Amino acid sequence: MTGKRRASTNVTIIDIAREAGVSKSTVSLVLKGSTLVADETRDRVSRAMSKLGYVYNRGAANLRGAQSSIVGMVINDLSNPFFAELAIGIERVLRTSGYIPFIANTAESVVRQAEVVRSMREHGASGIILSPALDTDGREINSLLDLGMPIILAIRRVPGARASLVASDNMAGAARVTQHLISLGHRRIAFLGGMGAMAVRKDRIAGFTQALEEVGLRADPALMLESMPTKDGAFTAMSALLSRPDWPTAVVCFNDVVAIGVMQALSRKGLLPGRDMAITGFDDTTEARQVSPPLTTVSVDAGDLGERAAQMLLRQIAAGNQTTETYIGEARLVVRESCCPPPRERKVS
Amino acid sequence: MTGKRRASTNVTIIDIAREAGVSKSTVSLVLKGSTLVADETRDRVSRAMSKLGYVYNRGAANLRGAQSSIVGMVINDLSNPFFAELAIGIERVLRTSGYIPFIANTAESVVRQAEVVRSMREHGASGIILSPALDTDGREINSLLDLGMPIILAIRRVPGARASLVASDNMAGAARVTQHLISLGHRRIAFLGGMGAMAVRKDRIAGFTQALEEVGLRADPALMLESMPTKDGAFTAMSALLSRPDWPTAVVCFNDVVAIGVMQALSRKGLLPGRDMAITGFDDTTEARQVSPPLTTVSVDAGDLGERAAQMLLRQIAAGNQTTETYIGEARLVVRESCCPPPRERKVS
DNA sequence: CTGAAAGCGCTTACAG
DNA sequence: CTGAAAGCGCTTACAG
């Protein structure tokens, strides 16, 4: 009903002081929860604040040196449930710490990422947990670090960056899932998804290759396909693969989202994942359990990684960003129903 | 390598002015992109800024009356992909507007919601898009509005709140999906999920009831079951229903997430959704397509709703929050494979 | 416990 | 185009 001009344009600590009949120092003390103020005085001030609709002005406070209470959470793809789970894990620990996490989504754009990080710095964020967009430059991370901003890299390492890292054991996970396929009898196995520049992809391919070499096989470059790490990207890449003559009998997918896109491409061709071709994922998102057939994948516990990242950030903020820590979470094989042995009739030479 | 104390603690507009050999007014003009500054001067200032690692101090600027460039996006459940899609739609339009959206997750906690909204106000957010937590009080929304803060309610209306609203046509959607079940021959239909206090649930139940009454049936209170709008909550509620004697032949679920929980409860009992019992969802999240069998549901286009909400917020910020708008998005029936006719042998009297 | 004073980093008129 | 001055709302010593 009213028509005030702008939020927080009016009532200040001085108005409160006048209303409560104290000095503004006292109001400030109440704001900070100081024990120096008498209970009766504190009550009077609190009542004045709610009566006048007072809003604390963080900007003014930060200006004078107060600790800001926000931390940034910069996520490269919020539509991927894996990152949503990560975000929720982060919030779980930050919630009890007095910090409020502000999330921003970059949708894999480094330009957007720079904007968002800048905005968070401008607003006085105490630290940032960054799940970096593709093609993030290590030097950018380092210059942030040099300015004294605590940064925790999550999920994706950035070559050349000196920041702390929380990620999962991509190499071991990929090796395990590949070994599983080999034990089912597969010899002609593709790796699909992710872009060439991604460190995570390199690590998973290293595990994949290592598992093959352990049994005297080698990775066929013609079966290592890139795609954007999205359902659509994977669908397209898999459809292209299926239009070629010599199919693999199994596909190790970059992650669950990619695996789901790959399954859709198979279905489109009338093929059934888990019967006509073995498919594996990575991440063990809730979707992995819900697709049909349920996806054999690698569990990395995104929520736990989020918690670790938040704890690490809190430590760095407290310590003043001196140390660099690394936490590599376990990557467990989760066998469900998306993997069959290779079909006899299509066995290759 | 360095050891600066805190981010943004040092270099200010004055340092830049000195470095570039101009006055600080000029630096401020450059910061605002004013055309009054000569190109050569602008360059000199820009170089000085990057040389010294300057970070704009939003707090100080806002203090003096500058427009803040953040808007808040407060989401009640980020782990529900529906809300992730909503968030992404919001970002899509905000991205081109110069505003940076900061997202916060309340996990259905009104306490958390109050904290988060307060923090956003303290940081000078220009407006907030709020997907309210359960049990949000209309008076809280109204007092925010009275302070001049533009607020757009998204997805869930709040009884008593005077804020603008972007939501979907819950009543029509629920009626459509119920009519679909009736046309398949169902007469004994349950409604499952959501908590009693939720306005959205009330609207959907109204559509459900109306569709039944159109054909001379009435909703059986024993078949209207509450649950938290989560997979686990739905699983529990459905399991309880299945332990009772007279099952329904079809279940209209509060949303897709609930439907998936219901399906899992059926599977646990050895029953197949779409063969032994008809199940419907609401929202048409990407998961609805991926579950097995694919879910018959109501499509509400979360991304589009997000875009509408963002456009509405931008309008309100520009206009100074005078008008109250409402946008109700269409709710289309999407028929997939989770609905069968009622089984003959279990047909009730 | 309270008051007076200084200053954080910026923007905004107002003269030049 | 540029400089000098005032002031936004808070916190921080410093006296009392």
From TrEMBL, chains A, B:
Asked whether the UniProt record includes DNA-binding among its keywords, one would answer yes
Which Gene3D superfamilies does this one have?
3.40.50.2300, lambda repressor-like DNA-binding domains
Positions in coiled-coil regions: none
Matching entries from SUPFAM superfamilies are given as: lambda repressor-like DNA-binding domains, Periplasmic binding protein-like I
Would the keyword Repressor turn up in this protein's UniProt record? yes
Residues of the signal sequence? Answer: none
Q: Which residues form the HTH lacI-type domain?
A: 11-65
Q: Which UniProt keywords apply?
A: DNA-binding, Repressor, Transcription, Transcription regulation
Give the highest taxon in the source lineage.
Answer: Bacteria
* SMART domains the UniProt entry points to: HTH_LACI
Q: Which CDD domains match?
A: HTH_LacI, PBP1_MalI-like
In the record, what terms sit under GO molecular function?
DNA-binding transcription factor activity; transcription cis-regulatory region binding
| Name used for this protein in its record | Transcriptional regulator
| Organism of derivation | Microvirga aerophila
